[in-house]
Amino acid sequence: MIDLYYWPTPNGRKISIMLEECGLEYRTVAVNINAGEQFHAEFLRHSPNNRIPAIFDHDNGMSVFEGGAILVYLAEKSGQFLASDPVARIDVLQWLFWQAGGLGPMAGQLSHFVSYTRDPVPYARDRYAKEYDRLLAVMDVRLRDREFLAGEYSIADIAAFPWVMPYRRLGNDLGRFRNLRIWFDKIKSRPAVQRGVDVGKDWLRDVDVSETARSVMFNQDSATVFRAADGQQPHVGEDR
Ligand SMILES: N[C@@H](CCC(=O)N[C@@H](CS)C(=O)NCC(=O)O)C(=O)O
Questions:
Q1: What pLDDT, in 10s, does the model give residues 154-191?
Q2: Which of 60, 154, 177, 192 could pair with 20 as two cysteines, CB 3.0-4.6 Å apart?
Q3: Domain spanning 2-80+195-229: CATH superfamily
Q4: Per-residue pLDDT at 235
Q5: Which fold has domain 86-190?
């Protein structure tokens, strides 16, 4: 049995999709990142970076944080979606790292400047919109002569998909990306992907978009980490 520490966001969905795909037994533990639950001591024991997702595997008492590492862990545990042949394996891992170091962070920053900033920052928004567009084109070119990023459907596709999903909100129409569109529709139609995407969707109805939530999410620095490590909750709504 695996506990999935989760909130319904793109990074969370990488893992809910993977768990649905590989059929391992799991249950979700909600970590409401708008309410500061990412700083709770119990969660920090599994995820020292105070970010979802994280997992705890009851079979061996192991915790794993960081989406990419969790995907590798689950692929190895289930023997699925990560080739064992060394060459094919590196092919998957390079696209997984590409997602974790490029597509995810860039789309995440774009999301911030599109949906969460109080004061528009055109330079930042344009910078990340262009980078998101560039990264989508990299995928599109890669998919010209293969069905999936590393040939076979793998954890690289599972990692990238949730960051392509919000393309409309992020101001892209995928209009120039014919191959990416085919890839996207194919993955979207998988029943396990649909189940994974739906995990926790009802929780968003009550999402707190108050000043407190903004302060918890967008006012973190070293003091926040040290306070949480000492078992105190982050300052909310205060200037430091
Ligand atoms: N590199 C991490 C990123 C995880 C991440 O940024 N998670 C976000 C949700 S999508 C989060 O927990 N945010 C909480 C916060 O900003 O306080 C991964 O891929 O797992």
A1: 999 999 999 999 999 999 999 999 999 999 999 999 99
A2: 192
A3: Glutaredoxin (3.40.30.10)
A4: 61
A5: Glutathione S-transferase Yfyf (Class Pi); Chain A, domain 2 (1.20.1050)
